[in-house]
Design goal:
This protein is α+β, with helices and mostly antiparallel strands. The chain contains eleven helices and 20 strands. The relative contact order is 0.12. The mean pLDDT is 93.
């Protein structure tokens, strides 16, 4: 670990994002071998903070083995040790190393759907039982995916993680407070006229404490008020598939039509196997991180691009209903786009007007 930026980030994750205190237990899920430098930094920072860290190794390649060779019971298995880890830990930190996004492309959709349902139980326990954070850790593969050099992606990563968070959060909170005064959002743009209501729901500002690199504020729509249609300029990813030119129509709060230039039937299958929750919008958010300005085909980064919006189909943050999936999809609203709050124009071409 020669880059001192890893140590700095490790201390930030432990002391700021999670706030580990003496005597507290931390479950570290290390995904992919390339995330080892950060795992080492986080482990050291946790020990120095008086915590008790435990590391678990995971990989998309291991997931592929289960899906390729496992029987129905094995694929649908909820690992007891992972479930226990969520009960044991005070904090959870997922170091999500970048992986080959086509790793599971050859796996039948029925197997992927069954696996996602089982893993959704673990994810729900994480949300309910621990103080958690996840971070996407870039590597050479990630740089190729983003079509930039490794040096550029790493510089972007550390800059995006180490913003002046106090300054930015103050700015974002001011906008969120204005949004709290409304009850309806309408998005108009490229093949898009999409609206929803959010009565009684607050807009929550992310502070680099949950999904890292951070930079978004979000709310939970009242699902049965969602109407209209929305087109997503960026490629979406789901279950090892790339979905291009995704277009969704909503009727009475449910996805009623899916169009895409690739993997449309796969999307339909996932939605149909997780009904009705998977056809509902569980989240709407604005991306706000100024250090992230290019799409990478990775949702943990792309949803933070300043000037974009995203929705999530499936499980809502307020736990209003159960669903094993939470599928984030990003729309580029940096041009030819307008967003209204109760019929007042508040956002145009990537910029807030309030």
């Amino acid at each position: 670990m020669t880059d001192k930026r890893w140590s700095q980030l490790g201390e930030t994750l432990i002391n700021y994002s999670l706030g580990v205190k003496p005597g507290e237990k931390l479950m570290i899920a290390m995904y992919e071998v390339e995330s080892y430098p950060l795992a080492l930094a986080v482990y050291e920072a946790c020990i120095k903070a008086g915590g008790y860290p435990q590391i678990q190794f995971m990989s998309e390649a291991l997931k592929h083995k289960v899906l390729q060779f496992g029987n129905e019971e094995q694929i649908s298995w909820v690992p007891e040790i992972e479930a226990y880890g969520m009960e044991w830990a005070d904090h959870y930190l997922g170091l999500r190393g970048a992986f080959n996004m086509y790793e599971c492309y050859d796996i039948p959709v029925e197997k992927i759907a069954a696996y996602q349902r089982a893993q959704g139980i673990i994810s729900t326990l994480r949300w309910q039982k621990t103080n958690w954070a996840i971070i996407r850790v870039p590597n050479e593969r990630f740089a190729q995916q983003a079509k930039v050099s490794y040096e550029k992606i790493m510089d972007m990563f550390f800059e995006a993680c180490n913003l002046d968070w106090d300054k930015h959060v103050l700015q974002w909170q001011r906008v969120a407070d204005i949004l709290d005064q409304g009850t309806r959002i309408r998005v108009v743009g490229n093949r898009t006229d999409f609206s929803f209501e959010f009565p009684g729901e607050k807009w929550k500002v992310s502070e680099n404490k949950i999904n890292i690199p951070d930079g978004e504020f979000y709310t939970t729509p009242k699902w049965d008020t969602v109407q209209g249609h929305i087109y997503f300029e960026f490629p979406a990813t789901l279950g090892g598939r790339i979905i291009n030119d995704l277009y969704l129509e909503f009727t009475d709060g449910l996805v009623s039509k899916v169009e895409a230039s690739s993997n449309r039937e796969f999307v339909e299958h996932i939605l149909s196997n997780n009904e009705p929750g998977a056809r509902r919008v569980g989240e709407f958010a604005f991306g706000t991180n100024p250090a992230i300005d290019i799409p990478t085909t990775d949702i943990l980064w792309d949803e933070k691009i300043a000037g974009t919006i995203h929705i999530a189909l499936g499980r809502p943050y307020n736990n209003a209903y159960d669903c094993p999936i939470h599928w984030d999809i990003v729309k580029d609203t940096r041009k030819d786009s307008k967003i209204y709050l109760d019929d007042k124009l508040i956002f145009e071409d990537g910029n807030f007007l309030i």
